Amino acid sequence: MASLRDLPIDEFIDALSVPCCYINLDGNVLLWNEYAETLFGWGRNEVLHHPLPVVQHLQDALESWSPMLLQYPFSTTAMTPFKHKNGSVVYATAYLQSFSINNYTGYFLAFLPKGFGPLISTEQFNLLHHFQAMIEQSTYYLATNAYGEITEINPLLCGLIGAPDHQFIGRNWFELIHPSFENHPLAEDVLQALTTDRIWNGEMPVRSERHVRNMCWLNLTVVPILSDEGEIVQYTAFGFDVSDKKRLEQEVNYLAYHNDLTGLLNKKGWLRQYSHVLTDVDQGDGLVHVALFDIDRFKIINESFGSRVGNELLLQIKDRAAQFLPETSVMFHPSGGLFGLIFFEQSKEEVFQLLRQLQHELQRPFRIYHHSIMVSISIGCVFYPSATSSLEELYTRAESALFKGKRIGVGTIQFVTKDMDDAFSRQIHIEKALYQALEEKHFYLEYQPKYELKTDTLIGFEALLRWHHEELGQIPPSEFIPLAEEMALIVPINNWVILEAAKQLKAWQQLVDHPLSMAVNISPNQFRSDSFINTLRNIKQQLNLNPSDIILEITESLVMQQTDEIIARMDQIKRLDYRLSIDDFGTGFSSLQYLKSFPVDELKIDKVFLDDWLTSKSHLLDVIVHLGKSLNLHVVAEGVEDQEMLDHLKQTACDSFQGFLYAKPLPPIEVVRLLTDNSQ
């Protein structure tokens, strides 16, 4: 067989048992060997004379390679993601060299993926365009025999470590690892990879006199070199200094898990570091308390004295609390004026006394920049074992107890009671079930009939969302809708409601010979979403339904925001020919001036005004009806449950009503029966 040195350039790269290619300065592939085909999936005919497909943002990469290769004739990348033909990602160390040979000018690339094998022979390695010489000049480099004893080390690496090369020859190269990692499994991971004739790549801490304050890290690639008989004859390791990158990662990691002012663990860091405590309690007979204490009116202190004083106050609170608390406790700092504590082993009575004393200690004046500042703190506390399954749930319950105490008054200590614990458990249960309820069709609709006042004619319905849970039973909308809004599920739920209600209306209109309408409540989040408009368009186009038969009920508080966005969305809806109704009118203190400018069709009077008339015969109900009619709006009274109330409404200009006096919300089958009876 001819020597590799004598082969033409195209045959040379085919003879190399590593994935490699040549590309010109524009990034088009000139040569592509079979190992590159195997690694990346693209055949030679697919890539020749086309831009190199494995590099994302190829033009950006070429722009960065040019100045780099002017400075260094040979360069390597760290373990880098490359694209496979099937869309997956291939991680490999890339070796990059500029060249100009015969008619070829551009770049030579070789790829060594992690765990790649079989490996190149000694001759191939030494002849890979003199890579070894290039590596010695531009990267940290050493070579060992088959037993890991150093046979060669370049001046760059000697200078980094701070010792001449003769001190290293014959020593095991693992002695270069930083002493603090002597018992770390890193060396075992490297050995395990190398003993299976595989390449190892990773970050390794090494001894270095240059890096006194921070540890030195090298990104190393270790390659076993095989003889022609397939036996390992040496190891070659080369890499580059990534200490600055590692230090930056550590700083970012610190900031991610610590409060940047006090240096205490933040919520994320606390959850991460103490995630094991509940398991420890379960395995023993211990007790854990989690308490959150908040500086009352801390925002006012910050605004009055400035953030410099506010920050110093937080630091002094941290220091004073730390001096007082037991050594076994842990303090953390989630945010702003909110601190957290975790107590181990103490009883509920002991924790309560500790928290009372903590309050007393922190209510002594703080002297800050010539200011004397006094604060009060409110505390919420929960203990484990309790009806919870995670540290985050425990935190949430302590937070809820804190807020409940603040509603009572500042300076309170609120422990989670059994009733609160049961309520938290129910809420968590509902939150988990909400994700499945829509997909598994656990929601259903009932329909509240609406009647014309003058004739008692059934003229339409209001669609009402219902949810029956197998374990929890009937869950009222007032309980699950706020949770759905918090969990960003309200938009898909509401879109399902309007679509389902529109389908029912279309079917029921066939059963009667007079117009029927359907009212649907629209949440503020749904009103703002683009998917809502798309749903309205689909209903209009696909159901062949007159959009004016659908009444979209929006809250008065949403209307009164008076933003350009809200008004533009209302105009969008009106252009689609849907009707708009202001629900619960009268409870949001609407201005007549704004009502006149909004494109609404209907006012729906809240039940509170009907009840007020029944108890005091107040004229406010009549005023609201008159207001609506003066604006040429359809006026609806909801919650009519009394004949006297109905008789009075008939004497006003009110147009229609709904309520238990005539009908409660009905399931679809009862609606069909009602419509059939009325038609007869």
UniProtKB/TrEMBL annotation:
Which parts of the sequence belong to the PAC domain? 202-254
Q: Which residues form the GGDEF domain?
A: 286-418
Write out the coiled-coil annotation as residue ranges.
none
Q: Which residues form the PAS domain?
A: 5-48, 141-180
Checking SMART domains in the record gives:
EAL, GGDEF, PAS
Query: Record's CDD domains?
Result: EAL, GGDEF, PAS
- Which Pfam family is one of this chain's hits? EAL
Superkingdom of source: Bacteria
Ranges for domain EAL come to: 427-679
Per its UniProt record, what PROSITE patterns does this chain match? Answer: EAL, GGDEF, PAC, PAS
Stored NCBIfam families: GGDEF, sensory_box
What is this protein identified as? EAL domain-containing protein
Please name the source species.
Exiguobacterium mexicanum
